């Protein structure tokens, strides 16, 4: 996109620096270690299933809808839905275009990706962002008695991030950035969702009293 060209050019120059070479070396060591020492016939289908559960944000889209249906969890569901929109716009729509990072399996000799190859940029991880954003938003919005369940969502998001490394489709720095960025915009998503929910709840109560 033309709007991002100056920033994309700056990132292209950064990819030629010694600092990036060190970052890439760190990423490479982790990915090859996972491939050579952790991957197995037992874990492969499990990790693939987990990573595919976040294709198109599926898992948390379904969860957000379920939370919206249940009256006691509607606030959390609304916050989750808003955070997913933020993730799509910021991570997939903006940052991937700016950083335009090549996928690891195209760069690292010997690294094999065991899922369908991606056709977009690598940085940051969209799957990780799409998992962490609603997970954090739900954790912030959940009532105290549901915080334990909400925290399980954060652990699931972390597992999704790990699977992106396991299958060889993302660098570790992609996943770390995806989680950090998602956590940052999950906070305004929570505040916006809370304001909307409270306003709608107040309006509904007034209508109920009027009847």
Notable characteristics:
211 residues, mainly alpha, Vanadium-containing Chloroperoxidase, domain 2, 8 helices, 0% strand, globular
What does it look like?
- By secondary structure, the protein is mainly alpha-helical.
- It has a single domain, classed as Vanadium-containing Chloroperoxidase, domain 2 (Orthogonal Bundle).
- It is built from 8 helices and no strands.
- The protein has helices at residues 5-14, 18-37, 43-52, 58-69, 74-99, 126-141, 147-166, 172-210.
- Helix 3 (43-52) packs across helix 7 (147-166) and helix 4 packs antiparallel against helix 5 (74-99).
SSE layout and pairing:
Blueprint: H1 5-14, H2 18-37, H3 43-52, H4 58-69, H5 74-99, H6 126-141, H7 147-166, H8 172-210
Helix pairs in contact: 3-7, 4-5, 5-6, 5-8, 6-7, 6-8, 7-8
Quick description:
73% of the residues lie in helices and 0% in strands. The chain has eight helices and no strands.
Order of helices and strands: HHHHHHHH
CATH domain fold name:
Vanadium-containing Chloroperoxidase, domain 2
Counting DSSP H or I runs of 4 or more residues, the number of helices is 8
Mean pLDDT: 92
């Amino acid at each position: 996109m033309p709007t991002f060209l100056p920033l994309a050019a700056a990132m292209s120059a950064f990819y030629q620096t010694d600092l990036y070479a060190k970052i890439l070396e760190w990423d490479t060591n982790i990915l090859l270690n996972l491939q050579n020492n952790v991957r197995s016939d037992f874990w492969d289908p499990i990790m693939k299933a987990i990573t595919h559960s976040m294709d198109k944000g599926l898992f948390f889209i379904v969860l957000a809808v379920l939370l919206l249906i249940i009256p006691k969890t509607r606030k959390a569901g609304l916050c989750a839905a808003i955070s997913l929109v933020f993730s799509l716009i910021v991570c997939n729509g903006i940052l991937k275009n700016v950083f335009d990072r090549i996928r690891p399996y195209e760069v690292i000799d010997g690294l094999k990706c065991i899922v369908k190859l991606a056709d977009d940029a690598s940085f940051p991880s969209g799957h990780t962002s799409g998992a962490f954003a609603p997970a954090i938003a739900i954790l912030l919005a959940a009532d105290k008695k549901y915080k334990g369940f909400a925290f399980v969502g954060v652990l699931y998001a972390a597992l999704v991030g790990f699977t992106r490394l396991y299958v060889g489709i993302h660098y570790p720095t992609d996943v770390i950035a995806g989680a950090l960025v998602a956590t940052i915009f999950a906070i305004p998503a929570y505040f916006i969702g809370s304001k909307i929910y409270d306003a709608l709840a107040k309006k509904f109560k007034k209508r109920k009293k009027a009847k």
